[in-house]
Amino acid sequence: MPRATNGAVEIEYERFGGAAAPAVLLVNGLGSQMTRWPEDFCGRLVARGFQAIRYDNRDTGLSTWFPEDGRYVLADMARDGMAVLDALGIARAHIAGVSMGGMIVQRMALDHPDRVLSMTSIMSAPYGNVSSTPEAAAVISVPPPNPKADFQAFVAHQMRNGRTIGSPAYPWSDDELRARVEEEYRRAFNPTGVVRQRRAIGADGDRTEALKGLKIPTVVLHGADDPLVQLRDGEATAAAIPGAELRVVPGMGHDLPPGLYDTFVDAILAAAARAGT
To answer: pTM of the prediction?
Structure first.
């Protein structure tokens, strides 16, 4: 696959759909690879007349990994997304991000408003100190077992994590969760990247006041049953951005199960429609 460059950082990306169609840049969450925006999901955006662009954040997947003491901030991660658009020759795009990806697209909108047509912030917050249940907080703070020592224990741990923060009304089957865990491990496994990404989230601070100056069509999508980034955090995002539309989904947790593909697509396209595309 092609790669974009932001200084010394290389960003793995993939485009679905025609280059002449309006672009939707999809940004993923903490430690999550671009495959968390599945091909079927991207195909639904293409079917609605858009091109879908997904990429691995730095320190994730097949993009550049950093040394243990490496440091960067969300502004750097936002520039990675801009580098992907540059590589594709795209001047302006609709941007959508989940969880940490929602924080990154907020930073994109603040730092690069001339590149952003609309924004969809999903299961995210305008600050890093999100409200989580203890069980959900453990998902991102407790490291998994060493997969080289006990792969089945690693898979079971990751599956439990998926169930802990997943959407109660749209559950994955055991086979689906196991396949996702195993496929992601085979593609890339960089657990220390999560530490550096969490540090970048914390360094960005509270964006609430800055977001009050945004003039970008925005939809905020959040699950009513999200235990990792609870609904109050999504409400805070919507309250901070002038004119933002808040969409609350009953039974949605902190994931993108197949049963919610169309819900996510509809939110992204609603923001795009408000931008006139």
So the answer is: 0.97
